[in-house]
Every structure is written in C-alpha cells, then in structure tokens.
Amino acid sequence: MNKIxxxxxxxxxxQGFLSFFESNKDIPFEIKRIYYTYDVPxxxxxxxxxxxxxxxxxxxxxxxIEVILDNGKEKKSYLLDSPEKALLVGKGIWRDMYWKKENSxxxxxxxxxxxxxxxxxxxxxxxxxxxxxxxxxxxxxx
Length: 142
Ligand code: T46
What we know:
The protein is mostly beta strands and 142 residues long. 6% of the residues lie in helices and 45% in strands. It contains one helix and twelve strands, in the order E-E-E-E-E-E-E-E-E-E-E-E-H. It is globular and about 55 Å long. Residues 33, 35, 37, 46-47, 56, 58, 95, 108, 114 line the site of dTDP-4-keto-6-deoxyglucose.
C-alpha cells in the first residue's frame, strides 16, 4: 500500500485507450464502494483525514491531482497526472489532495462501505493513534 501503481492499459492513438484493474489481482483488496469527486475549483484542498481501517485506490482519469500522504512520521507527494497511474492508500495515512488542473476528476475504489466512524478528522488525534502504535508498521510510505 501507499505507492503508485501502473494501471494495465490497452489501445492506441487512433482508437483510444482502455485501462482496468481487478480486485485481489492488481490491487490488494476487494472493492465494496466506488465514488468520484469532480467540478472541484483549481487549487482546492480536500481530504485532511485518515482512516482507521479503510484501504483505497485513487486514480485521476482526467486532469492532475497532487496527493500528499503522511503516516505521522514522514510525508510524501504523489502526482496523479495520467489515467494509467493509481495510488494505493492504506489505513493509518493522513491524506491531503490538491486540484492542480481545471476539471480534474478523482476516482476512488474502497475496501468497505462508507462509515464516518472509520474517519479520523483531527490531526492531533491521528498523531495519538500513531504514537500508540495503532497501525504498527503497516502504514509505511513507498
Ligand atoms: C478519502 C478521499 C480520497 C458519503 O456520504 N459517502 C461516501 O462514500 C463518501 C466518500 C463521502 N460521503 C460524504 C461525507 C461528507 O459529508 O460526502 C461528504 C464529503 O466527504 P469528504 O469531505 O470526506 O470528502 P473528501 O474529498 O475530503 O474525502 C474523500 C473520502 O471521504 C475519503 O475517504 O480518502 O476522498
């Protein structure tokens, strides 16, 4: 988790491209929910939370979105600027997303149904979980 992966892609410039990934094969979990974020004004920041248990894969089929991941010990920046790139984001990761281009779309496939109880929306609370070793070493960044 917490790394960029390449999405399998077929096609050519004459006919266009098709990209796909499959649960438990290309991404390391079963998908239970899909959502997407769009019509976000440029330079908007979203996210600002972590998940206790949720695993997700993020991809940007159109546009450019920067995702900053923070495991409480280090931060890394990942650029979603191609429909052939995806970012795996596991549990115990604080995330901030920045919309870098007009009309960029963020798509997300998640390992579980929506549950507000799984969110940590306060950064100090997130750091407390990190200090207590809640995720052990399962939230490394790559
Ligand atoms: C994440 C990043 C990448 C629902 O009711 N159902 C859903 O499935 C989702 C995802 C959200 N919501 C509600 C909860 C809030 O009232 O939609 C509203 C906006 O959600 P939020 O402010 O959490 O949106 P983002 O863009 O900051 O974060 C979202 C996901 O919530 C989050 O899990 O990792 O995208």
